[in-house]
Predict the 3D structure of the following.
Amino acid sequence: MWQDSFHKPVIVLALFAFGMTIIPINDALIKLMSAYLSLGQIMFVRAIFSIIIVMLFSRGISKMFTLPAQVFWLFVGRGMCIVVAMISFFAALGSLPLAIAISIFFVSPLFITLLSVPFLGETIGIHRAIAVSIGLVGMIVIIQPGGDEFRPETLLVVLSAFSYAMCQIWTRRLSGMGDLATMVSVQQICYLVVGGLLVIMNIFTQRPDSDNPTIDFLLRVPATASLMDYLFILICGISVLLLSVTSAHAYRVLEASVIAPFEYVAIPSGIFWGMLIWDEWPETSAWIGMFLILVGGLYMVFRERARDVDVTLSSPMPAAAAASQNFDFDEEDTDGINKDDSDK
């Protein structure tokens, strides 16, 4: 009986909102550790924790070895898009306020809309064009290119949003291959390998710290992590996986157009943690930019809902796109390539 309650819309949305609320904690903790640890070190350790958790609750790792070679490398390509998005985003966090970075990243649904034209053959009507334009204007207001307040690190967040959008498009193309557990496992292996390579590079380069927090976070020599640091990284891993579960469950039970607005809970949550930890209060231009990005994204979501169109790709977080995959970790694999995908 209690299991049925987890399928009630109010419970599903509450769990999903909770997942979106805590995911900025992952960002905040990594930003905290960016002052003395390297990004590669954090990525490598977090991947180890995440792989252990995945192995405890699924057979994703074992299923990964049964994938056809073509499907495996397609999953790797998708995972590398996420890796680029993560590295770009967290490198920028070394210098940018948390709320600003999170807000800029939320242009990713708009990038997905633009990329769906050449890669998925979709069309953009007047309403989608208006929504994308509003969101991109909001991004420009925050970044202020050419202005005195312009910070080059904001371009890293734009790169992160674009790379993540590419991952979402790729996920859509892979919707008939493998399952969610296998896809998540491959993604964590990509984190592990790239994080390990960054650690090795940092060890051999032995570059001293500079005045640029972003460069230091990327190139700093690995340091000895404390027990508290390992606890922080474990929390990061759990928060990411928890969002994957709550998001996948939500997109299986409810319509995507009902869920998507709850994605933006991450923006006020990011503002809260930035204020609490670093006393970061966004400037007026940042508030205006955030508002425009929010309006653009929600306008597109509600417009698609009015047209009764599946807007799963409007969701800016990784787990939501993966929700189009089968979330039953113990169900048989569907590793074969369907005809439509094999012909493309």
